[in-house]
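Before our next group meeting I need something from you. Please put the record directly below this note.
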Amino acid sequence: MHIISRKSLRLFSAIHADAETPLDIWYRATKAARWRNLSELKLIFPAADLVGRFTVFNIKGNHYRLIAEINYRSGTVFVRHILTHADYDKGNWKS
């Protein structure tokens, strides 16, 4: 998959250093993947959930949430938000 953008992962890791390794693991697994649908994605990330048009990934044992839009046809993952669990629960990312 083509991920847009790794920069957002680095910026988040600069603030939350404990997220650096889990985000790198997510990045490498996602980059190597060739998902055609959510079912295939869930083989690698079983806790991922579809929320509206977004796919939500748990990062670092659910301490953080990565919210992405995935275009399976083009093989593109758009990282929209990376949030702490508390910020995710506020729901502001949905708009």
The chain has one domain: 2-86. Residues 2-86 form a domain with the YaeB-like fold fold (CATH 3.30.2310.20).
